[in-house]
Design brief:
The structure holds two protein chains of two kinds. Chain A is mainly α. Chain A has a domain of 290 residues. Chain A has 19 helices and no strands. Chain B is mostly helical. Chain B has one domain: ABC transporter involved in vitamin B12 uptake, BtuC, CATH 1.10.3470. Helix content of chain B is 71%, strand content 4%. Chain B is built from twelve helices and four strands. Chain B has a two-stranded antiparallel ribbon with strand order 1-4. Chain B has a two-stranded antiparallel ribbon with strand order 2-3. In chain B, strand 2 and strand 3 form a beta hairpin. The radius of gyration of chain B is 21 Å and the shape is globular. The chains are: A mainly alpha, B mainly alpha. Chains A and B meet through helix 9, helix 15 and helix 17 of A and helix 5, helix 10 and helix 12 of B.
Chain lengths: 448, 367
């Protein structure tokens, strides 16, 4: 099937136009220069900076997707992400934090995308793996460990780095633990069981303060260790930048997250086009046929769970360390659905789509909703009749709910669909009976 | 079927109660060497646990019916059904509050009040369920299985927050507490006197109303589905949609009707439950919804008797964990928190080992 939907062809046209001739270089160069100049000259948190910041992230994404040579894309993206963003971060701590959070969720969404998008297994308890990673570092790096056994003492902060890897491994182990019993289940039952699993992990975290205090219950764990800072003397003395410790930590976590995101993108893209990725897709499209072709179903499904969960486990370690404090409500069902909304918005199975979806949802959550709240409050003061109780930041459920329903009805393949996946969602497993075919699916199904 | 629906129900309740009694006696006897007083303490609270389990069981059963009916017809998990239940509770609270503010609450007889909130809850929740089906599920019929499920999750979130918006901008508030007509003091059934001080066994009148209403609803539904023309049409649609439509059944109408019945039952259960606990909030439907789904799966989803069996078994199990876990582990674990874990573990175990449920028939997947 050729990309027939209108936006895809529009995208293709823009993409080829931007890949040919000197126009692309001039466009990206100018765009980058203007954005950078605007960010540096006016770093104050305001609606204007919000817009410039969104345009900045859009630029990074456009570069990633453009058809220009690799050296140009790599060079410009590196300049923007490794130089412009950190410097802007020293001027305004809010936006670099948003960028870091977005990065964390990009990695989580890419991990969930392996399970949901590649292998077609709807996991509603994904945040459980994130929780496992976070609690792993939180318990072992703080005096909480002495509550379990007085003879044990916390690991030194430098162990953060091996623990990121350990988080990866523990995530994978839990992924397999969840995967083993649910292998035989059909799609919708699987979704409910994973939801139950996620709730069990959260309730356990909430209640395992008795008889032995493992998780400190609903109080959560405070003062989680951060790894020791690196290059402080270089930055402060050699470069002469007078940055506080908390600013340096922001920069540090920004780079750690960026590194993990790049690693995740590389691993996931390589997996997608490997034998394993193709096996996952085969299972997703038609399990029976896949097994008949000799694909080891059990191993492949377990691998999908393990790979997806491992990213969440590693990110959990980073998240706990960055936030300094975690408690059970951090890992509730809403967070799982939040991540699922990213995958669905972007396009199940499509890596650039999921990255875009994760950034959009994070921005909505951290930046656009609070901004709307301020605007509404100003309007209220000006006399517009808006109920006083309405605070947009408190209505994420409404937002994600509407997002999920609208996406399912009008564009189930996501905004940047994966080609093979969109074919499946359009044509459907079971042939839709006459008057019941979803209207959106009609033209594509006919052209297929 | 020889026993009739009421006899069948009684059988399940008595059977579950006996099973529970045997289980706790066995557990107490296992520890009798270390703690000689355990058996007496176990038996002393047993009747109260059975009553508690019964109330929970009928709660789950009445919500589970909505899941099971929709699943029977569409093979689709209506994830938003817990919220339909919640809306029923909120409507009941709103009616009570309206009566209270207009000064009529004292004048309305208790029975009339109950009928009023049930009727309003059924009306609003039933209509809502049909609307949701029309807007969010019908356009997706025939799409891969996960698509309507994700849409249902979205609907569930939307309903929670829209209800919250409505509640917080009206006098109800986020956590609506409300008064109901006085149904009298708790009824003391008898006293358990096994050596230590006597413990009264009580049942609140509201719980009694809840259970009787649930029994009536189950019996009426059973009649409707098994003995009327409409019920025949529903069963035909569940068996084979296209053949049913060839036989002159308006399938879309029957599906709407299924949502209406399921939603109305959920709404009535919500209104009664709200009255029973005396407070409602927009998030109260989620966990009972999930547990009711567990009950439906436990009994065999798509099967109305199964929903009842599953509900009662799950209710007893939860009451058991909530009351006995702390006793049997010497106070190490608090039972209330682990009741949730018990319910979800049951869900996971039953789906793995017997996905067709206790009463369901094993089906093979067609290729």
């Amino acid at each position: 099937m050729t990309p027939t939907t209108q936006s895809a062809s529009l995208w293709e046209r823009t993409r080829t136009a931007l890949g040919r001739g000197p126009g692309a270089y001039v466009f990206f160069g100018l765009y980058a220069a203007i954005c950078t100049w605007l960010l540096f000259t006016n770093p104050r948190t305001s609606l204007r900076t919000d817009i410039v910041f969104v345009l900045f992230l859009l630029l990074v994404f456009l570069i990633y997707r453009s058809a220009t040579p690799l050296w140009f894309r790599g060079g410009l993206a590196a300049a923007l992400l490794l130089v412009v963003m950190p410097i802007f971060g020293t001027l305004n701590p809010f936006y670099i934090d948003v960028a870091t959070q977005a990065g964390i969720f990009v990695a989580l969404a890419l991990g969930l995308n392996v399970v949901v998008g590649f292998a077609g297994l709807l996991d509603l308890g994904y945040v459980a793996f994130f929780a496992v990673g976070a609690y792993l570092w939180a318990i072992l790096s703080t005096p909480q460990i002495s509550q379990i056994n007085p003879a044990w003492s916390p690991v030194p902060p430098i162990m953060f780095y091996p623990f990121v890897l350990l988080g990866l491994a523990i995530g994978a182990v839990f992924g397999i633990l969840l995967g083993l019993p649910v292998l035989r289940l059909r799609g919708d039952y699987l979704a409910i069981v994973t939801l139950g699993f996620g709730e069990v992990i959260r309730v356990l975290a909430n209640n395992l303060d008795r008889p032995i205090n493992i998780t400190n219950g609903s109080q959560g764990i405070r003062e989680i260790e951060r790894p020791p800072l690196i290059l402080t003397s270089f930055i402060r003395d050699t470069l002469g930048w007078n940055l506080s410790d908390s600013q340096l930590y922001q920069q540090f976590f920004y780079f750690v997250v960026l590194l993990i995101v790049i690693f995740t993108v590389v691993v996931v893209s390589r997996l997608k086009n490997s034998r394993i990725g193709r096996a996952w897709e085969a299972i997703r499209e038609d399990e029976t046929a896949a097994v008949a072709q000799g694909i080891p179903r059990v191993r492949m499904k377990l691998m999908a769970f393990a790979v997806g969960a491992s990213f969440a486990g590693a990110m959990g370690v980073v998240f706990a360390s960055k936030q300094l404090f975690i408690n059970p409500p951090t890992f509730d069902l809403l967070r799982s659905i939040n991540i699922l909304a990213m995958v669905i918005l972007g396009g199940m199975g499509s890596i650039p789509g999921v990255i875009l979806g994760a950034v959009i949802v994070t921005l909505l959550d951290l930046q656009i909703l609070p901004r709307m709240a301020t605007v509404l409050r100003d309007a209220q003061r000006a006399g517009v009749p808006i109920p006083a109780a309405f605070d947009p930041t408190q209505y994420q459920r409404l937002l994600f709910g509407i997002l999920l329903v609208l996406m399912m009805i009008f564009r189930p393949q996501g905004i940047l669909p994966d080609e093979r996946r969109s074919e499946e969602l359009h044509a459907g497993d079971e042939p839709p009976s006459e008057e019941e075919a979803p209207p959106a699916a009609r033209p594509a199904a006919e052209s297929a | 079927m020889v026993l009739g629906p009421v006899g069948q129900m009684l059988l399940f309740v008595i059977g579950s109660a006996i099973a529970l009694s045997l289980l706790v006696t066995l557990l107490a006897l296992l520890q009798i060497g270390a703690r000689p007083d355990l058996l007496v303490r176990t038996w002393t609270i047993l009747p109260q646990v059975i009553i508690d389990g019964l109330v929970r069981g009928f709660l789950f059963a009445s919500i589970a019916l909505g899941y099971t009916m929709v699943y029977g017809v569409l093979e689709f998990i209506n994830f938003a059904h817990g919220e339909i239940f919640m809306v029923g509770g909120v409507v009941g609270a709103a009616v009570a509050l309206l009566l209270a503010t207009s000064g009529l609450l004292g004048a309305v007889p208790g029975l009339l009040f109950v009928l009023l909130i049930i009727a309003m809850g059924m009306l609003v929740s039933g209509t809502l369920a049909v609307t949701v089906e029309r807007v969010a599920y019908r356009p997706l019929r025939g799409a891969p299985r996960l698509v309507p499920l994700i849409s249902a999750i979205g609907v569930s979130l939307v309903l929670q927050d829209v209800t919250r918006l409505i509640m917080t901008s009206t006098p109800l508030g986020f956590n609506a507490r409300f008064n109901t007509p006085d149904f009298g003091p708790p009824i003391r059934l008898f006293e358990m006197n096994l050596g230590e001080r006597p413990v009264p066994v009580i049942i609140s009148p509201k719980a009694l109303i809840f259970v009787s209403a649930a029994v009536v609803m189950l019996v009426v539904l059973n009649y409707l589905v098994n003995a009327t023309r409409l019920g025949k049409a529903i069963r035909a649609t569940a068996q084979d949609r296209s053949t049913a439509s060839l036989m002159g059944i308006n399938v879309n109408q029957i599906i709407s009707l299924t949502f209406l019945i399921g939603g109305a039952l959920g709404g009535a259960a919500g209104a009664l439950f709200g009255m029973y606990v005396g407070t409602v909030n927009p998030y109260m439907g989620f966990i009972p919804g999930l547990k009711a789904f567990t009950a439906a799966v436990l009994g065999g989803i798509g099967n109305i008797t199964g929903a009842l069996v599953g509900g009662i078994v799950l209710g007893f199990l939860e009451a058991f964990v909530a009351s006995y876990l702390s006793l049997f582990t010497g106070g190490a674990f608090s039972g209330a928190a682990y009741a949730d874990i018990a319910a979800f573990s049951i869900l996971i175990l039953i789906l793995i080992f017997r996905p067709s449920g206790l009463l369901g028939e094993a089906t093979t997947q067609k290729v």
